[in-house]
Amino acid sequence: AQSVTQLGSHVSVSEGALVLLRCNYSSSVPPYLFWYVQYPNQGLQLLLKYTSAATLVKGINGFEAEFKKSETSFHLTKPSAHMSDAAEYFCAVIEGGSASKIIFGSGTRLSIRP
Amino acid sequence: NAGVTQTPKFQVLKTGQSMTLQCAQDMNHNSMYWYRQDPGMGLRLIYYSASEGTTDKGEVPNGYNVSRLNKREFSLRLESAAPSQTSVYFCASSGQNTDTQYFGPGTRLTVL
Questions:
Q1: Res. B32: pLDDT tops 90
Q2: What span, in angstroms and rounded, lies between the C-alpha atoms of A62 and B46?
Q3: Helix (H, G, I), strand (E, B), or coil: what is residue B18?
Q4: Is B63 at the interface with chain A, CB within 8 A?
Q5: What does the pLDDT look like over B70-86, one tens digit per residue?
Q6: Contact (CB<8Å) B44/A106
Q7: Cα separation, B95 vs B51, whole angstroms
């Protein structure tokens, strides 16, 4: 059965520092992987997605993620944090090509220190 | 385009009351979804509709029913609300099965 684990429910970085949010998944078949962002009192919006093309995926707002099959990871990074990046981030996996089997991670809240 | 809209934005119910959450999308998407979001648990899929006239159970369907009224609208009904259904409910839509999902602003429901 598929699952998603986000390491760290809360991550705090200084403005301008590297952002690294961790996501590990388990899936018996090649997965579709997503990162979504949720700003306060809003719905989720897509940052980026992996669908078995390039393993390094670039998204909006300077974020990117690398699919590493050997490590079953899909970590999200951004070289330089901005205050506007403060939000909650969710990793999600779809296994077997059926959206009815989508699983979201529990989320990581990113705080940015001035 | 309004995207995905949800009504109401807030609702307070007493245990045992019923209500319907409404969702509509104007992006001509085939697939629509209902999720609930609880602290520390991420989003959990309640029901999913791949196309007009079809619905499938997700991870947590108990206590809920859905109706895909037409291609645009997908409603979620609580027949007899329970305090365990206190949550934030999100509707989403996507063009195809594994496409990007577009989310509505959510409905914050409290059951007393």
A1: yes
A2: 32
A3: coil
A4: no
A5: 999 999 999 999 999 99
A6: no
A7: 10
